[in-house]
C-alpha cells in the first residue's frame, strides 16, 4: 500500500510540473500524462492526490482539481483534506514528510458488478495560473 501511495503521489506531482497547455484538452495535449491504475471490484480506489509544500514545510495553496472526462463504469469523488508528503531521502524537503499538508485528490468506485477497463481524465490548475495539466488514468478493475 505504501508503494502505491508513493506512486500516486508521483502521478499527482506530474499534474503540477507538466508542460504548459491551454485550458481545452481537445486542442492541446502536450504535457499530458497517461497512467495505469489497478482497482478491485466493489472497492473505492485512491487515484491520486496533489499538494504544494512551502520551503518552511507549511502548506502551499492547493490546486484546482476537476474531472474532465468521467468514467463510463464508475464514479469519481474529489476530496480536500490533508496528507503527509513523501519526499525521497536526501530531498531538501524530506524534513516535511512528518507534517500534514493541505491536499486535493480523487477516488474511483466502479459500479456494482463491473470488471474491466475504465478511463478518467482529470485536470489540475495551479493557484494564480491559467495553465492546466491533464492526466489520463486507465483503470483496470479486477475481481
UniProtKB/TrEMBL annotation:
The keyword Signal applies. Keywords: Signal. It comes from Phyllobacterium endophyticum. PROSITE patterns: PROKAR_LIPOPROTEIN (PS51257). This is Secreted protein. Residues 1-22 form the signal peptide.
